Structure formats: C-alpha cells, structure tokens
Amino acid sequence: MLLLAIETSCDETSVAVLRDGCVLANEVSSQIKLHEEYGGVVPELASREHLRNLMPVARQALGQADVALGELNAIAATRGPGLPGALLVGLRAAQGLAFALAKPFIGIHHHEAHLYSPWIGGEPLSLSLDDFQPNVSLIVSGGHTMLVHVAAPLEHRVLGGTVDDAAGECFDKAAKLIGLPYPGGPELDRLANEGDGSAHKFPRPMMRDDSHDFSFSGLKTSVRYFIRDNPSVLEDGQRLRNLCAGVQAAIVEVLVAKTIRAAKKLGVKYVTASGGVTCNSGLRAALGAACERESFVLRLANPTLCTDNAAMVGMIAHMHLAKGTAATSLDAEIVPGWKLAESAVC
Ligand code: KG4
Ligand code: ZN
After folding, report:
1. Which residues line ligand 1 (CB under 6 A)?
2. Mutate-to-test residue for ligand 1 from 36, 171, 178, highest number of ligand atoms within 8 A of CB
3. Beta strands 74-80 and 105-109: pairing type?
C-alpha cells in the first residue's frame, strides 16, 4: 500500500510518501522566513506560499521515495483544523490527484495526526503500536494545547484544552515582548537554558485547578507588565536569560503538573506528548523527570515529528485504512474549526 500525504494547515508545506505504514519520504518546506518580518503567520501569504511550494515539495518527496504517481494507492490530506486558505490548497490538490488516479482520498484531522505521532519511531520511521498502552496525551503547539485520554488506537476522548492562548502562542508572544525573532519558542528555549528560572517567578495559571483546562493569556500579560516595570532587563544579557528561563519554567510547570494529574486520575500507565512545543528542552526534561518519579512510561514524539509534517498525516491515514474507517468523499470540504472529539468519522 503506497500512500501520499499532504499537510498545509498552517505555515509548513509538507508531503510524505508511506509504504505499508513505513515513511519513505517526509519533505517539509517551512515558511518561517516569509512570516518573520510580520512577527506571526499572515494567512493570505501562507496560502500563496503553499500554492507555490506544494508541487515542488511533492516532486521531491516522490523522488526521494522513488515512487511514481501512478503507483500510489491512496491520497491523504489535512482537512482541519487550520487556516482556511492554507487547508484548501492541500485538500484540493489531494482530491484532484485522487480523482485523476481513481484512488481513495482520506481527509485527516490535524490534532489526531499529532496525537498518534509519539508512536512513530525507528529507522526508517514506522508505526510501533506493539507496545501500545492506554495513555494520557498532551498535544501542545502554536495553535493548540489539550489533554486527551487514548483508551486504544483511534479511541480517544478530549479531557480538556486551553481556554485562551495555546502554550506555543504564549512562548511566541512572550518571546516577541522580549524582542526575540519569530517564532520565539525555539530561541526562548535556547536562552532559557543559560538562565535561572527562579530569578523571577511568573504565575502558573490554573495549575491547581481541578479541571483539565489550561489558560496562558494571563501569563503573557504578566510578562508584559514585568518588562514595562523593569525595562532594563532587556539590556542585560544574564537578566534577559533569567527572564526567558522564568517564562519557560512557568509554562512547563503547568503543562507537566496537569498532564501528571490527568494520568493519575485516569489510572493509565503511559504518558505521551506531541506538537511543536514538545521540542522544548525544558518540557522534555521536566516531563521525563516527573514520569520517572511517578512511575509513568513516557513516549515523546520524535523531535523531527513534533512540528507540523505530512508523515504523521500519512500515518493516521494508514491507521484509518487498516481499521476500515478511511474513505472520505471527493466533495468533502475543509473544516477549519474541526474539534477532535468529532473526528472519529473522517
Ligand atoms: O505543531 P506546530 O509546528 O504548529 C502548530 O500546529 O501550531 O508548533 C509550532 C509551535 C510554535 O509556537 C513554536 O514556537 C513552538 O511550536 N516551538 C517551541 C519550540 N520549538 C517549536 N516552543 C518552545 N520551545 C521550543 N524548542
Ligand atoms: Zn500542529
């Protein structure tokens, strides 16, 4: 079974080719440079860039996999959630290709793709569900932050999510206030590693709250006020690194505390994490330490699969194909606001 997968929900144009759940190619073209001067993703520019990049990226992926278009058995693409114009580019290209080849089209939920990405591993990357165990999963990226209970493969239930900003958004907005280039998360992570997170303690919103929800906009506001009241902090290298470490410590502590609490409540033995913020070194270390202390087995998404990529889209399509829940109508529309709970039927 040869499958081509397309991901264009935000600012990465990505195409992957999979053979029987094994990744032959996973090409990603990032638009970071394009959006950098605006300090965030500009939706209209993102769609146009996807239009320009999709065919070259697809050719590259097919070449890398040494697969011809005519050999493909199915085409998958992210259907939502995401930026409408960006989603349309990938979805319509995939549907056109599926129509031309007379092969099935599979519409994929972006969060569902992230959710199972911790189970993709090895060299070459492939699905490793042999040691699957019910788990609590943290999906944490620029647009989403949620906790999900995964009882069995493709049987999941959202426990809670952010009521305002996503964790990645908080990283990026705090980094912007500090004057770091877009996207600020990775740069803030780098500086935080050389700082002292206890030099200034930022609030940990909703950390002790009994729900599985998150809130990060207040934390961003307290960073804004801290900088307003201490402008010299941005002129002093060490104090700036301490500020980065303080922001990171607050975000990470909330994410880890709520994930562990949910895992205890649900009585699972495994914890997984995925999404762009799972690249964060502080989060990887703190989640690792907490899981070891509490005797949970931790599976973090491979760093190459944390940020948006088509390999995870192809893998979830492969899982749906195997379960017989995959085909999507060629007339299917994008679903920019698709909720994960509604994704069981593609
Ligand atoms: O999953 P992703 O590629 O896109 C969305 O679906 O949103 O995640 C991108 C987010 C951005 O907010 C970026 O700043 C954040 O992931 N990110 C990080 C790190 N690497 C990426 N945040 C903190 N530390 C990092 N090392
Ligand atoms: Zn994502």
Report:
1. 10, 141-143, 168, 171-172, 183, 185-186, 189, 275-277, 279-280, 307-308
2. 171
3. parallel
pLDDT above 50: residue 346: no
DSSP-based three-state secondary structure for 200: coil
**Residue-range domains of the chain with CATH:** 2-125+307-323 (3.30.420.40), 135-301 (3.30.420.40)
Compute, in angstroms, the gap from residue 307 CA to the centroid of ligand 1.
Answer: 6
- Atom index in ligand 1 nearest the CA of residue 168 equals 12
Distance between CA atoms of residues 346 and 343, nearest Å: 6
Residue 252 vs residues 93, 123, 160, 197, 289: alpha-carbon distances, Å:
38, 30, 17, 11, 12
pTM above 0.85, yes or no: yes
CA nearest ligand 1 atom 23, residue: 185
- Residue 165's CB: how many other CB atoms inside 10 A? 22
Q: Per-residue pLDDT tens for 289-330?
A: 999 999 999 999 999 999 999 999 999 999 999 999 887 889
